[in-house]
Specification:
Blueprint (H helix, E strand, L loop, with lengths): L3 H17 L23 H4 L14 H21 L4 E3 L16 E3 L12 H7 L9 H12 L3 E7 L17 H10 L7 E7 L2 H7 L7 E4 L5 H9 L3 E3 L4 H8 L5 E5 L17 E3 L3
Parallel strand pairs: 1-2, 3-4, 3-6, 4-5, 6-7, 7-8
Helix pairs in contact: 1-9, 8-9
């Protein structure tokens, strides 16, 4: 379960497993989305050309939500505590695993690493193309402005909201963003740059990130999450946050440079792995 970025990683693993095990039957479990409207619910089939028939109602009654909540928790209890040998759980070192044709498996996790789906990269990228019908005229116009701008557009994703008091590092309280923009300044003249800032807390950014005032910048607001992902993917430079949403915005792009944070979580000691051509930036 999760928002758009998490859903994309999970579905990418599904595509890879279907390719790797063509004779196996895989079942996508959507029960969690039937009782929690987390980040707007499951939406891949509404944004991309997903071939699976996914039958999900927009809203479930309180009784059905209760039923699915109990069902999901019973499944977790069964596989996490009783039938543990069937459980394949996401962890930072498990990118490849073997499935047996003689037994079922319960695969759970986000699988937020390119190595988890790299064997089916072409198929994944072909699927994750935005349906033109989902994009409003406003978004198409902004995309046109990015393409035709006399300046180099830099997408900067600054996420606060649900990251406050979480185990995610608050990147905006580190030197990550200033370091990243200084790096881009070494490539491009500052007068040739314009920042498109995507944030869930624009006022905080204005009040606390004074280094932004050296740049021509604009906050991109009022869009749906996938519209922001689409626009970010059209920018020449992308400074991502410690977010799967950011990650996919960059991965679907043809950006000249993608800059990513070296660390994502509080207490993390090993640098995060990213696609080999991305620039990994320190937070200090």
């Amino acid at each position: 379960m999760g928002g758009l970025g998490n859903q994309m990683f999970q579905y990418a693993l599904f595509i890879r497993l279907k390719k790797e095990y063509p004779s196996f039957h895989f079942h996508l479990d959507f029960d969690s989305y039937k009782y929690v409207d987390y980040h707007g619910g499951f939406k891949l089939n509404k944004i991309f050309n997903i071939p699976q028939t996914i039958l999900l109602k927009d809203k479930y009654s309180i009784w059905w939500r209760l039923f699915y909540k109990i069902k999901v928790n019973l499944k977790k209890y069964w596989f996490f505590y009783i039938d543990k040998k069937r459980l394949i759980k996401d962890n930072c070192n498990l990118f490849d695993f073997h499935l047996s044709p003689d037994a079922y498996s319960f695969i759970v996790g986000t699988w937020a690493d390119e190595r988890c789906f790299i064997k089916a990269q072409k198929e994944v990228l072909n699927l994750f193309k935005f349906l033109p019908t989902t994009l409003s005229e406003k978004i198409k116009e902004v995309s046109c402005n990015i393409a035709n701008s006399s300046k180099k557009i830099v997408a900067v994703h600054i996420r606060r909201g649900d990251y406050i008091n979480s185990n995610f590092i608050s990147l905006a309280n580190t030197n990550y963003y200033s370091n990243s923009l200084e790096y881009i300044e070494k490539i491009e003249n500052i007068h040739n740059l314009k920042l498109y800032i995507f944030s869930d807390d624009p006022q905080w950014c204005k009040d606390n990130l004074s280094f932004l005032n050296r740049f021509d910048y604009e906050f991109i607001q009022g869009n749906k999450d996938y519209e922001d992902m689409y626009l970010m993917s059209k920018c020449m430079y992308i400074v991502i946050a410690n977010s799967t949403f950011s990650w996919w915005s960059a991965y679907l792009s043809n950006a000249k440079n993608v800059i990513a944070p070296q660390l994502q979580f509080i207490g993390q000691t090993t640098p995060t792995s990213y696609p080999k051509d991305w620039i990994v930036m320190s937070l200090g």
